[in-house]
Amino acid sequence: MATDTTDMATTPTLGRKIAGVIDDYKYPVGFLLFFLGVWTLGVRAYSVPTYVLPAPAEIVLSFEGELGNLWGHTTVTLYEAFLGWVLGNVVGISLGAVMAEFQTLKRSIYPYMVVLRSLPVIAFAPLLIIWMGINQGPIIAAATITTFFPSLVNSIAGFSSTDELARELMHSLNASRWEVFRKVKLYNAFPYIFSALRISVALTFVGAVVGEWLAGNQGLGYLILVANNQLATLLLFRALLVIGIFSTAWFGLLVLVESYLIDWENQSGGGATR
Amino acid sequence: MSLDETGKSTTDRERRIDIDGVSKIYGIDTANPVRALEDINIDIYENEFVSVIGPSGCGKTTLLKCLGDIIQPTNGEIRIDNGSAADARQRNQVSFFFQEDVLLPWRTVMENVLLPLEIQGADTSDSAVRQQAKDTIETVGLSGFKDNSPQQLSGGMRQRVALARGFVYDPKIFLMDEPFAALDELTRRKMNRELLRIHQEIQKTTVFVTHHIAEAVWLSDRVIVLSPLPGEVHDMVEIDLPRPRNEDTRGLQEFVEYEESLTETVMALDDE
Predict the structure, then answer these.
(1) Domain range for residue B126?
(2) Residues of A in contact with B145 (CB under 8 A)
(3) What would the pLDDT profile of B238-250 be if each residue is shown by its tens digit?
(4) Are B205 and B13 in contact (CB under 8 A)?
(5) Beta bridge pairs of residue B208
């Protein structure tokens, strides 16, 4: 415990904390400002027309009066992306758990999952339209499919990650298979599941946007397509910016929830299990 | 109970474990099968503390895992209280202690200790059940830490929690696989002292695997020396030192003699 005293001396005060945050963010923020500066100057210097590339300030200013319309499309896309994300993860995580538990099933199905995963599954979207018609169905299905595969793979890895000693311990305590699953494997899988949830945020937006390109008559993906046809580049950038903001916020929320729920992950390594 | 070839002190006690002609061959259907254990015959008696020592790879852990029904012997039979090793495990009569603490990091100390009771179907919100866990945590000297998570504890403390988890359901037999091997020298000695105290207090039949000879002599009623590849019983030594034992026991002339002669035996085996 004697070594702790040196740590005590550097226990962060509020001033130090702020200094720490500034220190963490000064380079990325600096780079962002530099990037936006170069963008602005470049557009000005070469008189790039707005329909090719608007300046950053122009994009921000163009939101004025557009928020109501934009919000309507945003809710549509968020609904599709969220539903696809939930469905893809629920199915992916459950199937992964079952496959990790029953090796015969895993050995029968997994090779095909690997093949499917290496295909650009989004290319199946037109098929979804044939099956489901032009409505929100194929859009949600596309978001589900893009979410499903990484979720499945992570889930299998997570539910298989319990080490031999923990299995032996549970066996020596006469635990049933279900108890081993519920009391040990499930917890070991949590970090992998959260990783799947995070990775699939960006993917569900890919599914939803591409789905809207093919079968949508509203939503941010649809808006991007319209903007493209009309060379309304400002509109296109607004839609992209909104997607970026929501996807980042969603991702960030997951990171927060994970750090709240899984408080044992980062501190392991104490004691004999090193 | 019949007379036993291992000595007079065991004749008046009841036999708990009967290891009868046990062999274990790993990779029996491969080109290079490994004979980890060969025709092991050992009887272990009520409340006896038996240590198993021997060079690395002599099958100590394999033997212990056979006793705990974690692996199955290839040949021979293990009987525990006239049932099989599987019966004993399923009736929660044995407790296995691993080389690592194997604490579940998402559970507090209390919840880790409650785990065996939970699996046995006890209601862990019941105050009597909780009291049982609390008492056991007190036995290993961690009363103040029952609501801590394992990550907040030192290696020695974590291993104490593992001991409490093994003690809590009051099994009849302890199977200990070098439970303190991963700890530093000082902590290990402290833990041995703790184990000696607890064993003298609650009197359990114990099979203790170790490669530390002084520790084996200090704790045991009997020390079994296994030879490596194939693992066979090379020697069996009654440790006729008075109980209760304490730090002074280490200073006895007999203690030193036991330690030296066993050290020579094991070193000779290691050179072979």
Answers:
(1) 103-170
(2) none
(3) 999 988 888 888 8
(4) no
(5) B51, B176
ipTM for the complex shown: 0.88
Nearest CA in chain B to A166: B102
Nearest chain A Cα distance for residue B128, angstroms:
21
AA letter at B18: D
Count of structural domains within chain B: 2
> pLDDT confidence of B231, banded at 50, 70, 90?
confident
Q: Tell whether B268 lies on the interface with A, counting CB pairs under 8 A.
A: no
pTM of the model: 0.82
Which secondary structure element, helix H or strand E, spans residue B63, and what is its range? helix B60-67
Residue B209 predicted with pLDDT over 60: yes
- Beta-bridged to residue B206, according to DSSP, are B49, B174
- Is residue B87 domain-shared with residue B177, that is, in the same domain? yes
Q: How far is A1 from chain B (nearest CA, A)?
A: 10
Q: Distances in Å between the alpha carbon of A274 and those of A167, A269, B14, B151?
A: 18, 5, 41, 11
Nearest to B107 by CA among B175, B182, B180, B165: B165
Closest CA to B177 of B95, B117, B72, B115: B95
Q: Which amino acid is at B88?
A: A
Domain covering A56-263, topology: MetI-like fold (1.10.3720)
A227: how many CB neighbours lie within 10 A of its CB?
19
Domain limits, chain A: 4-45, 56-263
For residue B97, pLDDT beyond 90: yes
**Do the Cβ atoms of B175 and B96 come closer than 8 Å?**
yes
Give the per-residue SS3 of B82-120: CEEHHHHHHCCCEEEECCCCCCCCCCCHHHHHHHHHHHC
